[in-house]
Amino acid sequence: MTNIQILKRLFKDYTKKYIIQILLALVFSLILAASTSSIAWLLDPAVEKLFIQKNQSLMLLIPLGIVVAFATKGFSLYLAKTLMISVGEEVRKAIQVDMMKNLIKADTETIEKRHSGKIITNLINDVNFMTTLVSVGILNLFKDTLTLIGLLAVMFYQNWKLSLIAIVMIPLASFFARFLGKRVNKVTIQAMDMAAILNTHLMEIFRNHKLIKVFQKETYETSRANNALEQLKNKGKKLAIIYARSSPIMEFLTGIMIAILIYYSGNLIMSNEIAINNFFSFLAAMMLAYQPVRSLATLNLTINQGLAAAKRILPIIDEKHKILEDEKLDKLEVIKGTIAFEKVNFNYSTNSRPILKNINLNISGGEMTSLVGHSGAGKSTILNLIPRFYDFSDGDIKIDNQSIKSKRLSSLRENVSLVSQETTLFDDTILNNIKYANLNATEKDVREAAKLSFSEEFIDLLPNKYDTMIGENGIRLSGGEKQRLSIARAFLKNSKIILLDEATSSLDSDTEKKIQDALNYLTKGKTTLVIAHRLSTILNSNKIYVIDNGEVIGEGKHEELLKSSDAYKNFYDKQIQKH
Fold first, then answer.
1. What is the DSSP string of 525-544?
2. How far apart are CA 433 and CA 437, in angstroms?
3. Tell me: the pLDDT tens digits for 77-135?
4. Residue 569: alpha-carbon gap to chain centroid
5. Do 163 and 244 lie in a common domain?
6. Global pTM?
């Protein structure tokens, strides 16, 4: 996407709807330009009428006019800035909403390819640069261009010869700004990349702080963080220095121009080609023009930073997803909850190696079916295909004889609950964490779900009970307490299909019994597919499938498989009996 295409896209998608505010800012910029120009022009009659002709009738009028001009300038600048700040913040929110909307709807595989630290950097830092481009960039373009035009008009009105000398500065300043802009673009991209890496590193430190302590890697991680911060500092320093280079360049150009103008205007005054009052007015206009010329010269830097950020943000917003809600499709009608895998194959798009090969499963409705097998056999992938976290590459998955790909995604997922061994909780209250399964649930419903999952026992012991904040990912709760809250959510959702990945972590016998009892309540009369690690679960299963290396290598009940499947017997002897 070219820079012009990016600017068109930003206007069409984000700034066009605020065109009235932008036009109002343009009007106030016109008033600002007129008032600034009038300040320079008023010096002409002030010098001539008050200092040369000593006209007392204008002693109050001209100073009053200057005060009004300055007041108008300040007030119009305030209004223009307020309008564009408002537009900028609206645009910031709109871009961030579009990013969040697309990231939330993104395929699981897409999210897994990105690091959360880099996404946060995009969401905050990059969007800041884009907001500056839209708000500060547009405002400076309006007010400084119009002010410069107004001041040039005053300068030409006073003396066209001096004005031609002064105007040479503008293309010179533009040339240097264009040169600096290319450097800024390159360094900005590098700085943003470093900020993303640092964000990623900080998130890993917070997430793995116990691991860092137990392996005594505080010094090592401090060194890594220091290296990342050093690189970020160098990029930031380099960027600031590039910006600072505009000052000596502009000062030098201005100094040369003023020296030439004073020399030339001295000759003009001596030859009576320009009066002293005209010269003072011209000089004031020229000095006032310094700020807009400098601002316009550095505007290129702001634009380049914004465009560099847009090149990172827009691809995230535009990314197309494979698994999407299609409201044209019919809803999935789940009656019995029978699930059938028919010659299903699957591999990740980033890896050509097949993960599942010709999988055929028949999971009876209202009954429990177990998947057993060694780690990495493909059991979790089978679970993930049912709610379409991923899409299979060949074959079909049917629920009550309806292909899940031919039915509306939302109707599929509303009939499926997932209880994973990796419990995910939010930094919120216990009430809101359980209620996440059904935001319309009453407090009575939540308490009933907590009771059925045996969560009520520990919740009632907490000082704030259901209003207790549990910390990031439930850090203030034990492993067993977190698992019970996860089960409570599944109770509240009350879906017809339960996908269960049993926890392999060891719990005390009392907690484990409560979790097992809660799961028994949860799965009663429901179609349940469980990755089994406990003997009790396997014995309660109506059917067991043995998965190895992405293939089904055995099926039946526990006693049958012990006799017919060497792989199952080996797995049972080594792993299941431990639980």
1. TSEEEEE--SHHHHHH-SEE
2. 8
3. 999 999 998 898 899 888 888 888 888 787 777 777 776 667 777 777 788 888 888 88
4. 49
5. yes
6. 0.75
* pLDDT tens, residue by residue, 406-464: 888 888 888 888 888 777 788 788 888 888 888 888 888 888 888 888 888 888 888 88
Nearest to 369 by CA among 402, 337, 333: 337
Number of domains within the chain: 3
CATH code of the domain containing 465: 3.40.50.300
Instruction: Return d(Cα 185, Cα 190) in angstroms, integer.
Output: 9
Distance, in Å, from the CA atom of 436 to the CA atom of 426, rounded to the nearest integer, reads: 9
Residue 467 belongs to domain spanning: 424-494
Token readout for 38 is: 């009038």
**490 and 560 housed in the same domain:** no
Contact yes or no for 88/133 (Cβ under 8 A): no
Residue keyed to tokens 């004005």:
163
pLDDT one-digit tens code per residue, 32-64: 999 988 888 888 777 777 777 777 777 788 888
> How many CB atoms lie under 10 A from the CB of residue 443?
10
283: left (phi over 0), alpha (psi -120 to 50) or beta: alpha
User: Domain end: 471, 494, 517, which one?
Assistant: 494
Question: Whole-angstrom Cα distance, residue 125 to residue 122?
Answer: 6
* Strand ranges across the sheet with 394-399: 356-363, 339-346, 394-399, 402-403
Query: Distance between the two ends of the chain, CA-based, in angstroms?
Result: 57
The chain-wide mean pLDDT, for the chain, equals 81
| Widest Cα–Cα separation across the chain | 120
Residues 6+ apart with CB under 8 A from 72: 31, 32, 35
Helix or strand (DSSP H, E) at 416: strand 416-419
Same domain, 357 and 230: no
Do residues 232 and 366 share a domain? no
Same domain, yes or no: 472 and 503:
no
- Determine phi and psi for 458, rounding to 5 degrees: -85, -25
